[in-house]
UniProtKB/TrEMBL annotation:
Protein name: 5'-nucleotidase C-terminal domain-containing protein
Protein keywords: Hydrolase, Nucleotide-binding, Signal
The organism's taxonomic lineage, starting at the top: Bacteria, Bacillati, Actinomycetota, Actinomycetes, Kitasatosporales
Position of the signal peptide: 1-38
Domain Calcineurin-like phosphoesterase: 63-319
Ranges of residues in domain 5'-Nucleotidase C-terminal: 406-568
Keyword Kinase tagged: no
Taxonomic source organism: Streptomyces pactum
PROSITE patterns named among the record's database cross-references: TAT
């Protein structure tokens, strides 16, 4: 039975490891480190070498959520957490396509049967080096990386279905044309799979639903889906004319189709994920300790996807894991994710039985590996980055502001971030004048803050200098700002929707502008987490019947990220882009002699 969207959105703690393995004694070993061995009753004692004998070792390399990060990500977004033998953790700088290319090419050595796959969000929400050119540089890099297949993710739809088709098929941008004289964008060498995304008029998938990788008689099918809730987290224009279907039902449908074609080995690429109990990339997801394991939508998906699917490559949550989750028949199955931004890759061994055409599930092993920056850079990627950087330099390197220290945003690890405060203050200041909208407060979705502002110079600009390119990396969507009328009751409802409804299990805490304060009580559940009477604007309690002018980007005012009440806003005024507002604030409030200090992030009081 397939999981319903409602049931999948409820995070379920899946405690795997000893408890599951004990129930399936001798049946499965998963998430072993590279080079480890695993045997079981299905193996029959047969020897496995590279293509000789009845079985073949197929190497599956995978990553997800690259988001156009060709250069090493800034701040904490460019680190991964490693768990040490004594239980402590350390932070390791990682990522950058020059290093990712080297890591993947090194990993492939000695593996004649090797596939490289991705779990979506290769493009979209990208830094300026890629985003300025509608992600053509990233697709070019992925082609050079030897990517064989990718599912679409929600961010592949940021610019709509027509632009996604161009990304796949090539051609110059319809408005901006070709970026380099004499060169036409060739498109992706690899197939983007969109099995659960159909055209509303024709009912057919907008891109290929699956592909079959074949080498010397070895056949493995790949089915690609994005999360069914994509319309909730992409602008309405981006998903116009499209329908997004249940992930489980879609995967099961095309698994049967592949089986009818004689393809018995199937891997699902799913742009939806989970939340492991630890953020360490090498955490043993299958350990049996209290509170261990993985939760999130991927748990229900994995438990309902057909047992004929041999492994699930996932993404979207930007987490790192290599777990085993029972399939509908009760047999554990490998489910992986390689964090984000090219900081990790996953190496999975699939033992293919030539006699049955299927994967020997008892011998699947998988582990995540760090894309270290102490390895040689791939020369072709360096050349690619240099070439596009030269085109972007006149815009990217322009200083727009100055900061006195790191201002954490996406990497803050807290519900309220200093960068979130800075962004909302910028929005309030820009839209407070009567002729600009008369905003009294501003709200910002946390997912729209894509990076940190790092004090250390990324290039030649100098420490503390914020360039246009760095500001773009923080806010790459170029959402237009809006100001709307909301009653106090609607505003209170929006706060409650942060922790209830679609956001009940994965709260999305809005960033708020100065003067707006409230208490979030995490000891309570659902909407009750917003403490009654604590919500104030400039010291005054919010009046449920009073009307307030609220600034937010067009994504939020369209009800995005699970805030349907924000769609009810009246008297909408559309203003400048969020990026223009952010840059203007940085320029107006900082100089080299008087840089901006990080905000205190003290507007939301947290009770634990």
């Amino acid at each position: 039975m397939s999981a319903t969207p409602h049931r999948r959105r409820k995070l379920r703690r899946s405690v795997t490891g000893a408890a599951v393995l004990a129930a399936t004694a001798g049946v499965f070993v998963a998430a072993l480190p590279a080079g480890a061995t695993a045997t079981g009753p299905e193996d029959g004692g047969s020897a496995t070498t590279w293509g000789h004998g009845p079985t073949v070792e197929v190497q599956l390399l995978s990553f997800n959520d690259l988001h156009g990060n060709l250069q090493p990500p800034q701040g904490s977004s460019g680190n991964v957490t490693e768990r040490q033998p004594d239980g402590t953790t350390t932070s390791i700088p990682a990522g950058g396509v020059e290093y990712l290319a080297t890591a993947l090419r090194t990993a492939r050595q000695g593996h004649p049967y090797t596939i490289t796959a991705a779990g979506g969000d290769m493009i979209g929400a990208s830094p300026l080096l890629s985003g300025l050119f509608h992600d053509e540089p990233t697709v070019e890099a992925l082609n050079k990386l030897g990517l064989d297949v990718s599912s679409v993710g929600n961010h592949e739809f940021d610019e709509g279905a027509a632009e996604l088709a161009r990304i796949q098929n090539g051609g110059c941008h319809p408005k901006e044309g070709c970026y380099e004289e004499g060169k036409t964008f060739p498109g992706a060498d690899f197939p983007y799979l969109a099995a659960n995304v159909t055209d509303e008029k024709t009912g057919k998938p907008i891109l290929k639903p699956y592909t079959v990788w074949e080498r010397k008689g070895v056949k493995i099918g790949f089915i690609g889906v994005t999360l069914e809730g994509t319309p909730d987290i992409v602008t309405a224009e981006g998903v116009k004319g499209l329908k997004f279907h249940d992930e489980v039902e879609t995967i099961n449908k095309y698994t049967k189709e592949l089986n009818r074609q004689g393809v018995r080995s199937v891997v699902a690429l799913i742009h939806e994920g989970g939340m492991p109990a630890s953020t360490a990339y090498n955490y043993d997801c299958d350990s049996a300790g209290p509170g261990d394991g993985i939760s999130g939508p991927v748990v229900d998906i994995a438990r309902n996807v057909s047992p004929q699917v041999d492994a699930l490559i996932t993404g979207h949550t930007h987490q790192a894991y290599a777990c085993s989750i029972p399939d509908p028949s009760g047999r554990p199955r490998t489910v992986t994710s390689a964090a984000s931004f090219g900081r990790l890759y996953t190496d999975t061994t699939l033992t293919y039985d030539r006699r049955t055409g299927d994967i020997v599930r008892t011998r699947v092993k998988s582990a995540n590996h760090v894309v270290h920056r102490n390895q040689p850079k791939a020369a072709d990627m360096t050349a690619l980055i240099d070439r596009w950087n030269e085109l972007a330099a006149p815009i990217a390197n322009r200083p727009v502001g100055y900061i006195s220290a790191d201002i954490p945003g996406r990497g803050a690890g807290t519900y309220e971030s200093p960068l979130g405060d800075l962004i909302t203050d910028a929005q309030l200041e820009a839209l407070a004048p009567a002729d600009k909208g008369g905003a009294q407060l501003a709200l910002m979705n946390p997912g729209g803050i894509r990076s940190d502002l790092a004090h250390k110079a990324q290039g030649q600009e100098g420490d503390g200098v914020v360039t246009y390119g760095e500001a773009f990396t923080v806010q790459p969507f170029t959402n237009m700002m809006t100001v709307v009328d909301l009653t106090g009751e609607q505003l209170l409802t929006a706060l409650r929707q942060q922790v209830s409804g679609a956001n009940a299990d994965q709260p999305k805490i809005l960033q708020v502008s100065r003067g707006f304060t409230y208490t979030l009580d995490l000891t309570k559940a659902g909407a009750d987490r917003i403490v009654t009477g604590s919500v104030r604007l400039n010291g005054e309690p919010i009046d449920p019947v009073k009307t307030y002018r609220v600034a937010m980007n067009e994504f939020l005012s369209g009800g995005g990220d699970g805030f349907p009440v924000l769609k009810e806003g009246r008297n909408k005024l559309v203003g400048p882009s969020d990026l223009d507002v952010f840059n203007a604030y940085l320029s107006a409030h900082s100089t080299a002699q008087s840089p901006l200090d990080p905000p205190k992030a003290d507007r939301i009081t947290i009770v634990k």
